[in-house]
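Handout, section B. The chain below has 143 residues.
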Amino acid sequence: MVGQVARRLKRGGVFVIQDYFRYEGITIAPECEAFRRVFRAVCKSWRVRGGDPDVGCRLPGLLHHAGFDIKEITPLVRLARPGSTLWEWPDTFFDIYLPALVKMRLITSAHERAFRREWAKRSRDPGAFFTSPPMIEIIAVKR
């Protein structure tokens, strides 16, 4: 994709990317094995289909080699607490994705139930929080 953008962008054109650089760095607190198991399975599901949940680590090099100068790299992590709008993001994602992980045999139905139980507990816990998967924003200019 970086090469395609480089071919179409004029000299001096700006390319801004936001992507994951360590997906498994997502945190739900208090932590437990059910969460870690599901996050590992999500990453594995992307890798087996050719994806890279940590592509952000490679993007600066890919951009440089494609003819871009990196102007800025900024880490992006968001924190949500139960009841907030951002707290609903994992609700929606995992409602859709957990059954897919079971179907792919990356987790079992028992693992899915354990995750849902633990998530429901955190959703009622005023001390709970989660941080989004770490991302980076890169601003690059075509040479």
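Note. The chain has one domain: 2-142. Compare this with the example in section A.
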